[in-house]
Design goal:
CATH superfamily of the largest domain: Nucleic acid-binding proteins
Shape: elongated
Oligomer: single chain
Number of strands: 8
CATH topology of the largest domain: OB fold (Dihydrolipoamide Acetyltransferase, E2P)
Number of helices: 5
CATH architecture of the largest domain: Beta Barrel
Low-confidence stretches: 25-34
Strand content: 25-35%
C-alpha cells in the first residue's frame, strides 16, 4: 500500500510538471503563433530598435503637433509617456482625429497598429511606424489657462516699484560721484 501511494504521488507530480511545462511553452510561443502584435512603448523601441524592426506593433499615445498631409497619407507625431514617434498613416485615419496636442489642447489618445521601422527605407532612414490602423481611444480637449487677476494687479505695482527704485539708485550713483548722495 505504501508503494502504491508513492507511485500515485510520483505520477501526480510528473503530471503537474508536464502541465506547467506545456503552459510555459504555450505562453512563450503565443506571439509567434498569431496572438497579434504586442503593445510597445517608445522607450523600448528607442532602446532596442533592432528587435522590433519590421514587426507589427501596437503603440498608444497622444496625437501632437500638426498633421502633415502627403498625397493619400500623412504624418502625425504620437507621444507616449517617454517620447514621440512619427506615424505614417492613411488620411482617413488622420481625419478621424479631432484634437492635436499643443500648449492649448490635450490631443486625442490614439492606438496605432502598424509596422515599426528603425530606419525606414521609404522616408530617408527615419525611425517611424507605418500605420495599418489608427483608432481614437479618447477624445482630446482644450486646456484652459485662466488669467490670475492678482497677477494682473501685481504687474503694474511691481513695475512702478522697480521704476522708483531705479530712479533712487541713479540719483545715489550721481550723488556719489559728486560727494553727497542726499542732494
Amino acid at each position: 500500500m505504501n508503494n502504491s501511494n508513492a507511485a500515485r504521488r510520483c505520477a501526480s507530480r510528473a503530471l503537474l510538471w508536464a502541465v506547467l511545462a506545456f503552459g510555459i511553452l504555450a505562453a512563450a510561443g503565443a506571439e509567434e503563433v498569431g496572438a497579434g502584435p504586442g503593445r510597445v512603448g517608445a522607450k523600448a523601441l528607442i532602446a532596442d530598435p533592432r528587435s522590433y524592426d519590421g514587426r507589427e506593433i501596437l503603440f498608444e499615445g497622444e496625437a501632437i503637433g500638426d498633421p502633415m498631409r502627403r498625397g493619400d497619407h500623412g504624418w502625425v507625431n504620437v507621444l507616449d509617456a517617454d517620447a514621440a514617434l512619427g506615424v505614417y498613416a492613411p488620411l482617413s485615419d488622420l481625419d478621424a482625429m479631432g484634437v492635436f496636442g499643443s500648449s492649448r489642447a490635450k490631443g486625442d489618445l490614439v492606438l496605432v497598429r502598424g509596422i515599426f521601422h528603425r530606419a525606414c527605407p521609404d522616408h530617408g532612414g527615419d525611425m517611424d511606424i507605418h500605420a495599418t490602423s489608427v483608432t481614437v481611444v479618447q477624445q482630446g480637449h482644450a486646456t484652459p489657462h485662466p488669467v490670475d487677476t492678482l497677477k494682473l494687479v501685481l504687474v503694474p505695482f511691481s513695475m512702478t516699484l522697480a521704476a522708483g527704485l531705479y530712479v533712487v539708485w541713479r540719483r545715489r550713483e550721481a550723488a556719489n560721484r559728486k560727494g553727497s548722495w542726499l542732494s
